[in-house]
Amino acid sequence: xxxxxxxxxxxxxxxxxxxxxxxxxxxxxxxxxxxxxxxxxxxxxxxxxxxxxxxxxxxxxxxxxxxxxxxxxxxxxxxxxxxxxxxxxxxxxxxxxxxxxxxxxxxxxxxxxxxxxxxxxxxxxxxxxxxxxxxxxxxxxxxxxxxxxxxxxxxxxxxxxxxxxxxxxxxxxxxxxxxxxxxxxxxxxxxxxxxxxxxxxxxxxxxxxxxxxxxxxxxxxxxxxxxxxxxxxxxxxxxxxxxxxxxxxxxxxxxxxxxxxxxxxxxxxxxxxxxxxxxxxxxxxxxxxxxxxxxxxxxxxxxxxxxxxxxxxxxxxxxxxxxxxxxxxxxxxxxxxxxxxxxxxx
Length: 346
What we know:
Elements: H1 7-14, H2 18-25, H3 33-46, H4 52-64, E1 71-77, H5 80-83, H6 90-103, E2 106-112, H7 120-129, E3 134-137, E4 147-148, E5 157-161, E6 165-167, E7 171-175, H8 177-190, E8 196-201, H9 202-207, H10 211-222, E9 232-234, H11 242-252, E10 256-259, H12 262-270, E11 281-284, E12 295-298, H13 301-317, E13 329-332, E14 335-337
Parallel strand pairs: 1-2, 1-3, 3-5, 4-6, 5-7, 7-13, 8-9, 8-10, 10-11, 11-12
Antiparallel strand pairs: 12-14
Helix pairs in contact: 1-2, 1-3, 2-3, 6-13, 8-10
């Protein structure tokens, strides 16, 4: 059995201290770029592979004791006005990210991309000058389905939240939206609903990689007792049409409606033509924990935020940088929340 190449072997070969070698292999910006390149090339030539048991021990030690400060992680935000609105789901993710980062010895700092005088090139320079290597990419604004962030990603380790960034394709953490839609159908069917319709924003369904539509169709087709209905899409939340809704309901006669968001359910009530749950049941694919009236799926934003930090830190520890050739998708299960917007069918 060949002896494993160690950090000290690389240190002797490069005539550097082994702690310098360790920092260089982790991409630490305190080490000069030319030194990092020398160490990386030497490690590759010598066939160095990190010891998985040592890595596991490092993770264990981090988890079992208060962490010293390791550095700042950036959170890139495109639209501060909507992201920091009290009703926006990113608020819960942000709180969770801050808490989990602190437990691991990091702090989170938000950087706003769309502010006067800011552009991708300048942002890239600021992050490098600050020695920031890890980036969380926040979900993109709803109006930007083709969002691109063109900073020099080769210097950074990055994780995106959700599918809404068109380019680049980062490793990402997201609610398992396909299973969330399946879960909503399952729960409504268990209550006795048999004509379950889908009423969602087409742009939002695109932002979740069509998973809501896919999960809904898959689950409805799997139940012999359910009647398949044609989904109804609207272009934008500001362009919902009561006339289109009522025509669709007259044509398909749903006894329950799955909406994209709890405020779409509120809009249904606001049309003045529907009594929920008397006329029709309603369940949402996004229901915050505190919304007691609304039944539906809590996307588990708190767990998504913590998982995003865990994934980012693990990638930092293994010196993964740049745009990945193959994405890793970490899917977080949603949680069904009971609510008065549905009821047992007789």
